[in-house]
Amino acid sequence: MRICSVRIFFALMAPGLAWASPNPRLVLPEFSALAQKATESVTITLDASLLAMAGRFLNGNDPQDAATKEILKGLQGIYIRSYTFDKDAAYQQSDINAVRNQLSAPGWNRLVETRSRKTQADVDIYIMVENNRAIGLALIASEPRQITIVNIVGAIDLDKLHKLEGQFGVPKLDIDPPKGAEAPRN
Amino acid sequence: MSEDLESRLRAALRPVAPSHEFSQNLIARVTADQGSEANPGGTRRRSPKTTAWWLSASMAASLLIAAGVQHQLQERRETQRGLEARRQVIEALRMTSQKLNLAYEVIKSQSSFPADDKPGV
């Protein structure tokens, strides 16, 4: 009876506790309308167990695999949705409002906002910070024929992302995290 | 004359009971022949205990083989899942880096052409 009461108490408290702590995992909708219009769709859903499994298949002696392994340390999930279209303006910004609304919640900080008239590419990068550590990253890249949403959950080390330079074509980003945020040290 | 011959023949060919020794030999011979027909290879018939042992051993071997095959299949499935997860991780990081690159290009071009792009860092 007592155990049952404790269980009921925690069941009732769980939503409140979840609300209290910021969650770096975005709820990514189905985007079925976008998927129908897209000529190419990429859906990547990697939770902690899949990341751990992938890590076991990375060769530490290979530089690219070693760099990837380093980045995976501390990550709890990678979620990507990307849609490519065969013509411009095939999607509306309102199509991804459900995601943008989540990024206006407390905990998320906009790290970078770029608007390019030349390439018509807009990139917004957000990070979630907890106890001076980046615990989540979200990226929305809107291009004329492509929209991409990236959500990385876990202890993200921006230094390690910088170190990817030359591995996956990642440039060295001369950007500083917002005040109070520092890259976690593993 | 003929009657005499007939009676002599009858007397000579009258049924006579075989000797005890002859009967024993015959029975022994017939038994031996039946045994060799039932086991033509000449091997000894297995005892029930041996048969049970062979059955158990066969079942154990079958179980071991089945478990080994199952393990192999499971391992192969795990390997396939792991390789797929690895491929997805690399693809995810490639896409992320590509989009970071996009932002970087805008930031970089801002210093060259301030009016063209509008980054907000």
What layout of secondary structure does this protein have?
The complex is a heterodimer of chains A (186) and B (121).
Chain A: H1 2-20, H2 32-37, E1 40-47, H3 48-56, H4 63-72, E2 75-84, H5 97-103, E3 108-116, E4 122-130, E5 133-143, E6 146-154, H6 158-163
Chain B: H1 2-12, H2 20-38, H3 48-112, E1 117-120
Question: Outline of this structure?
Answer:
Chain A has 186 residues and is an alpha+beta fold. Chain A has 6 helices and 6 strands.
What does this protein look like?
- The complex is a heterodimer of chains A (186) and B (121).
- Chain A is of the alpha+beta class.
- Chain A has a domain at 21-45 and 76-163.
- In chain A, 31% of the residues lie in helices and 30% in strands.
- Chain A is built from six helices and six strands; from the N terminus they run ααβααβαββββα.
- A six-stranded antiparallel sheet of chain A has the order 1-2-6-5-4-3.
- Chain A is globular, with a radius of gyration of 19 Å.
- Chain A starts with a helix and ends in a 23-residue tail after the last helix.
- Mean pLDDT of chain A is 81; it is low at 180-186.
- Chain B has 121 residues and is mainly alpha-helical.
- Chain B has a domain at 50-116.
- Chain B has helices spanning 2-12, 20-38, 48-112, and one strand at residues 117-120.
- Strand 3 of chain A pairs antiparallel with strand 1 of chain B.
Search tags:
heterodimer; A: 186 residues; alpha+beta; six-stranded antiparallel sheet; 6 helices; 6 strands; 30% strand; globular; disordered C terminus; B: 121 residues; mainly alpha; 3 helices; 3% strand
